[in-house]
Amino acid sequence: MGGGTQATPDRILDVAEAMFAANGYRAVSVRAITRECGVNIAAIHYHFGSKEALLEQIFAKRSAAINNARFRLLEACRAAPGRPPMLEQILEAYLRPSLVLPNGDAGARRFMRLRAILAHEHADMSKNLISKHFNHVSGTFLGALMKELDHLPAKVVYWRFHFLLGAQYFTLADPGRIQILSEGACDPADSDTALAELVAFTAAGFRAPPSPHDALILGNVLP
């Protein structure tokens, strides 16, 4: 195969990801992708087999980069003078790879937008893809959080991780709400600021005592 043929699968993936993120998975046909790529429909069937398999490969490619970066950052977390508290380090290790784009890679943010769209359009498909490609890394981080927050019941940590995921998705989907409400003072596209604020916000949430509901279930007496 020549260089152009070798590049075809990556080009198809990039174009399909951009089209899915912009228009939704349902609205984009294989034929539309081939027109945009300048290839014939046989190329997609040859390299990927189907539209769903194409989506699967987008998830595999993007999740590998995000997960590998998360594991590297988690391994670098350590308690030492001059370093942030361990909780903040763990949260930044999880959030940074999805919020701060490497070398200006707009594709990473585009992928997160695609995830948000897919969750709305195809909940079952989204759950299956997220489970397959992200459950292992999420479980690893949950273990690190539970070790750091061993005074909290596991159920409480799970709930707070759920809220962390929601805040992350909404920030990456960037529907424009906060720009309007803040009259332009806040912009999720300012990834370094968004990361710093989200780490501070979620760290405070994880450190909060159990809710009155959970405290009653645990048999604690609240003042």
From TrEMBL:
<keyword id="KW-0238">DNA-binding</keyword>
<dbReference type="InterPro" id="IPR050109">
    <property type="entry name" value="HTH-type_TetR-like_transc_reg"/>
</dbReference>
<dbReference type="InterPro" id="IPR009057">
    <property type="entry name" value="Homeodomain-like_sf"/>
</dbReference>
<protein>
    <submittedName>
        <fullName>TetR/AcrR family transcriptional regulator</fullName>
    </submittedName>
</protein>
<dbReference type="InterPro" id="IPR041586">
    <property type="entry name" value="PsrA_TetR_C"/>
</dbReference>
<dbReference type="InterPro" id="IPR023772">
    <property type="entry name" value="DNA-bd_HTH_TetR-type_CS"/>
</dbReference>
<dbReference type="Pfam" id="PF17939">
    <property type="entry name" value="TetR_C_30"/>
</dbReference>
<dbReference type="InterPro" id="IPR001647">
    <property type="entry name" value="HTH_TetR"/>
</dbReference>
<dbReference type="Pfam" id="PF00440">
    <property type="entry name" value="TetR_N"/>
</dbReference>
<feature type="domain" description="HTH tetR-type">
    <location>
        <begin position="6"/>
        <end position="66"/>
    </location>
</feature>
<feature type="DNA-binding region" description="H-T-H motif">
    <location>
        <begin position="29"/>
        <end position="48"/>
    </location>
</feature>
<dbReference type="InterPro" id="IPR036271">
    <property type="entry name" value="Tet_transcr_reg_TetR-rel_C_sf"/>
</dbReference>
